[in-house]
Every structure is written in structure tokens, then in C-alpha cells.
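Changelog-linked ticket: fe (ii) ion example.
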Amino acid sequence: MNIGVISDLHVDRYHNDEINETTFLREVSNEVNRLSLDLFIIAGDVSNNYVKTHDFIETVEMMTGVKVLFIPGNHDFWNFDDNNRSSWEIYDYFKQQPESLLERPYIINDEWAIVGSPAWYDYSFASERFSYEDLERRAFKGGHWQDKFYVDFKISDIDVANYFAELTKKDLEKVKDKKIILVTHVATNKRFRVPMPHKIFDYYNAYMGTTKYDEFYSEYDIKYSISGHIHFRYNFIENGVTFICACLGYRREWRTKEIVQEIRDAMYVIQI
Ligand SMILES: [Fe+2]
């Protein structure tokens, strides 16, 4: 069985460009077909608009006939066009979609299951030289962490991170007799931090991930841990868990100019 994984497509970023949302739909679907995937997982950050994100997922499913599974990333929670929806309402919107993994593990077969959560950053990846107040400000050297303006769960980031970790634990319990593929948006292993010391990422690492999932890797039979968010492509094995970051990322970060090549390079295929 072939399970394809990708994240951080950011399909709505290219306005005055030859690449647009239709290009993404076509090329992502082509790659899903080319790889003969049985399942396709998107680990968040499809777009800055939840309706657009959901439309994209549904259309890929229609164009390929392949089951898509999804968890939202921080950008999918962004409230660019509709100020009436709170972040929790957007969470509930995603939760209702048939492709969603939120609070609903996907049972592949007797042996394997998939558990998913956005997870949330809890500042534990930041350099210790910053105080909680420094990090909670979400502003550094004239720049801002943009979630500050577009996401509002009405509680602190640490409380969001705790809550998502609790939900994940409940889902892991539901499938504890199986081998597990864990899907999050933010990173759950500190090895995904931007190496320190770094001029600005000593600070911005705060928003890259969480250490709240560390204990889950010894408690449950997690074989694969997929995350996105950090916009570089990097895989490693630690204590028998394969950690995968399959970010497509922004075009300015690509090594080539070719979307087909970049999707091919970013996509990771798990064979079980
Ligand atoms: Fe992200």
C-alpha cells in the first residue's frame, strides 16, 4: 500500500504568476496518479482560507479518485476574508469534513491506523534567552509572527498546544493496539528546529513546534511521524520512529523553478 504525504502547498500565494491554484490542482493530482497512491495525506497549510483549503482537498479527491486525509495548519485557520468565523468555528468546520483526521483516527486495516492533529507551538523550541513575555509578544526585531493577526483561539498558544496534545492522546488511546502514523502540522521533534544560534530563528523557533508529544513516542507504537510547517524537507529515524517533513514550501524556497519537480521532490511515500 502506498501512502503519499505532502504539506505546506500554500496554493493561494501566487497572484501575478504563471503558477496559480489550477496549476497546483493539476500537478498535485498528476503526482498522486503517477505514484499510484492508495491514500494521500496533506499535513496542513493548503491556503489562507478554510473554504479554499477544503475545496482544494475535495477537488484533488475528485480528480484522482484517491482518498485524501487532512489536518489543518496554522494558515488554514487564517481568517483573511471572513471576520465572522472564529478559529474554533473554523476548527469545527474542518472537523465535519469527511477527509478530516481531527479527533477521528483513520483505521487503515487490522494492523495500521492514522492519528492526526494540527498540534500547536508552545515556545519550547525557542532559545532559553527569551522570556515567556518576549515570546508571547510574537514580535522580534521589527517583524511579527503573522498568526498574531490572523488566528485567535482566545487562549494562549501554550493552552492551545496542551489542548491539542490532550486530544491527540485520546486518539492514540483509541488505536493503541495498532501501528500508528501520526500526522501533525507543527513539528514534534526538536531536531526540526532551525539550528541555533541564528540571528532571528533563536526567537522564531518558538513557533515551529512542541515538545508535548515527546512522551507519546515511547507510549504508543508510532512508526511514522509526519509534520510540516518548517518549510524544509528533512527525514530521519529516531528510536525506531521515522520523522518526515514533506513541505513543498514557498516558491522562493524551491531549488528549481519547476512545480512538477518540486512536488515530486517534496512528496514522501510510505509503503506499508
Ligand atoms: Fe504552517
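Closing comment: Example verified and attached. The radius of gyration is 18 Å. Residues 2-271 form a domain with the Purple Acid Phosphatase; chain A, domain 2 fold (CATH 3.60.21.10).
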